[in-house]
Amino acid sequence: xxxxxISCALAFCVLAAATALDYRLTPYIQAGTGQxxxxxxxxxxxxxxxxxxxxxxxxxxxxSPYFPILLxxxxxxxxxxxxxxxxxxxxxxxxxxxxxxxxxxxIKGETYAGDDIASLRLRSLVLSFSVDERFRFPLGxxxxxxxxxxxxxxxxxxxxxxxxxxxxxSYASLSPRLADVLFLGLDLGYDFGFKLGRGNMILGLRGDxxxxxxxxxxxxxxxxxxxPWRVLGRVGYEIPIGPRREAE
Length: 248
Fold this sequence. Notes:
- The protein has helices spanning about 1-20, 40-50; strands at about 20-35, 60-65, 70-80, 90-110, 115-140, 145-165, 170-175, 180-195, 200-210, 225-240.
- By secondary structure, it is mainly beta.
- It has a single domain (about 20-240), classed as Porin (Beta Barrel).
- The protein has an eight-stranded antiparallel β-barrel with strand order 1-3-4-5-6-8-9-10.
- It is elongated, with a radius of gyration of 22 Å.
- The relative contact order is 0.21.
């Protein structure tokens, strides 16, 4: 294993030298909002509507499904671009990303008078990997904008739920089962950058959409969480690692 790691590192260095790749590492923090759908939330909403004062849904109970919750995360991107003998030239780059952050959804029960009677907020901690194609456009001598899009692969790490029912709170954390571990998605990003020191300050927006279930019927929660999405603001700092170049 040690020899394999050394060989991979040497191969990476040879590739870098041969192609004159420009490497840029961007650690970042991000926060925003998001939501998810699925039977877990609709079934819980039906329970709230039927449970309130023991009456039927049509008499006094109601619920407001799918309202956004606060989400966030940390991560880093590694961009490869400007190779002299590489297909990624000019303003085009291939960006490998890794993010540890929350996805999830929420539902709220209320009376027809608008009084809150119950709510459920469920977040899932996800380690995700993305491969984006990025296009960067100059706005001035030291400023630029970037557009990026591509697929992502998420690994479910843990579920956290908070529930409120008529003045009583409960909290639970649960590990996912094998059926819940993997999910696929897409991401779309916009960045504004400006020169700061040796690198670039990056201010951006990210939109993530899960294409498969975040939770399955055969999983730890026993109900589906589907079509999760996030909209996140991002702050990062881009550090040039390869041959030094001005911001494109």
